[in-house]
Design goal:
Length: 371
Amino acid sequence: MQKDMLKGLNLNKAFLGFMVLGAGVFLAATVLFISNRVTEFHDSVVKSAVEVRTSYLALDIATSLDRNWSSLGDLSVVLPFTDRVTFRSFLTREVADGTDVIWAGYVDTAGQVLLASRRQREGENVSTEDWFLRAQAGPLMGYARTSAGEDVLVLSHPITSTGTTQAGILTVHLRPQAFEQHLSELAGSLGLDMVVFDERGMPVLHSIGAQYIDMTQLSVQRALSGQEISTREIWRGLGERFAMSVPEIQTAPNPAVGWRMVTLASPSQFNDAKNTLMMSLTEILGVMALVLLVLSIGFIRIFLDPLHKLVLNAQEIALGDEVLPVENHRTTELSLLSSALARLQGRMLRAEDKVVELEEKLSDGVSADRS
């Protein structure tokens, strides 16, 4: 009989199903919400990291330029007080083995090379060369093209004789490849790729292949127009990148170099931390779900099972089965229900006894009449 009563939906199954459904909806909504939040947090972390690393890279560029400019400034100070032989040795020492500095020289206002490292180009006239024409306007720090068609990084410092009269130009020509190699190694250690544009808008330093430089990208356009931006972009041959533009590399109080820079970072380099965070959150949610399941089963065992037994007991009593009423005083409701069932069963038994007694009296009366 009890097995037949247990068939179909009962309170235990309904409660457990409701808890499982509620837990499923809660976990799904939580996972979706957390996933979106983690993605936003991941993007924020990537952006902050790229900004900090880009600032460090720009500072290193400015520091390197400042170091070379300070060295040139020191030479300009001693030039008026040094004889030709000694100063030529200073210029030669500045070039050293030619790894970083290609050439150093002192040129008069007419473009005649008066002194040079290792006497290279002494006596030549460079008045038509790009770097000399630009250096006549004042201190120069930037890329220029030599008569041989080679782009070099030129630092030029005007030399005055008396008052403000310009006597000549002291210059050093740096090898771009050495500068680029240093910056590429630094950018690589920071997890970045970089492209530096000069004042002409030409890419002069880059840690990626020249074929991958896309001048149509928003970050490049903003950098060349003097605007800062942080955005996600798809670069040909590189894939998705987080890009940041630097509108100008600050070199003050030295001459403005006019360089702009775009740095690129792969969002995937931060995926390990993101996946670890997601795994930790998933584990926490899993533990919460397990705890919720255990609590639900405990609630069923402690509160619903006794109620279920009382319901079955009431059904048996209603059917007239001779069973003892179940007693349960775990909660006020269960106590009231079990007491009510006991009283109900007592009344039913007393009623049955009266019926039997009346039947016996009726039977005795009928027997007496017949006799």
